Structure formats: structure tokens, C-alpha cells
From TrEMBL:
Keyword Nucleotide-binding: no
Keyword entries, A-Z: 2Fe-2S, Iron, Iron-sulfur, Metal-binding, Redox-active center
Keyword ATP-binding among UniProt keywords: no
InterPro entries: Glutaredoxin, GRX_PICOT-like, Monothiol_GRX, Monothiol_GRX-rel, Thioredoxin-like_sf
Glutaredoxin domain span: 16-80
Name of a matching Pfam family: Glutaredoxin
Family note: Belongs to the glutaredoxin family. Monothiol subfamily.
Domain of life: Bacteria
Name the UniProt record assigns to this protein: Glutaredoxin
């Protein structure tokens, strides 16, 4: 299975996916840590992928998303953005609405 196939399978398997450096319990960069904090503040149910554990996915995701940095948050298979965008969406109330739609659809 190619790295792109793995990414597509991960996104199809979970409505909310965070590609991050490290894990929610042990983020390995400040940006990943901030996104985890925001998702926790929203009581979000999400899957995470530690990009350090799969270098092929780490590189392929940049091409797949056309987004060069991490973390990357996806909701319903759609790239929402990185840390700054997620924080902005949280601050203006849009992130909680996006996450509520996922919860309602389950």
C-alpha cells in the first residue's frame, strides 16, 4: 500500500484526523501541542498520526495536501489547516461548529 493509499485510508476511517509531530500525550513541537489543546478544549474525538513514525506518510502528506508544514487537521477528509488556522477557527467559534457537525453525523 502506498503512502497516499495509507493517508486516504486514515482519512476515510476517521472523521477527524490530526497529523502531528508526536502524540497527544507527548507532542513533539509547540504547534502540535497547541492544536491538541484546542481539540481537547472542544472535547473533540479525533484520531492522530505521528508523522515521525511513518516517514513515507510524512513526505507524501505534503504533496497530498499541498500544505508544507505540520500539524495538519482534517475534518471529513478535508484539510482544515495548520496551527494558526485551527486557533483562529477556535477563537471565532467556527471550529466547534465544524466538530459538532461531525458528532451529529455519527
Amino acid at each position: 500500500m502506498s503512502a497516499i493509499d495509507r493517508i486516504q485510508a486514515q482519512l476515510a476511517s476517521h472523521p477527524v484526523v490530526l497529523y502531528m509531530k508526536g502524540t497527544p500525550d507527548f507532542p513533539q513541537c509547540g504547534f502540535s501541542s497547541r492544536v491538541v489543546q484546542v481539540l481537547q478544549a472542544c472535547n473533540a474525538d479525533y484520531a492522530h498520526v505521528n508523522i515521525f513514525e511513518d516517514p513515507e506518510v510524512r513526505e507524501a502528506l505534503k504533496e497530498y495536501s499541498n500544505w508544507p508544514t505540520y500539524p495538519q487537521l482534517y475534518i471529513n477528509g478535508e484539510l482544515i489547516g495548520g496551527c494558526d488556522i485551527v486557533i483562529d477557527l477556535f477563537n471565532n467559534g467556527e471550529l466547534i461548529n465544524l466538530l459538532a457537525k461531525v458528532t451529529a453525523a455519527q
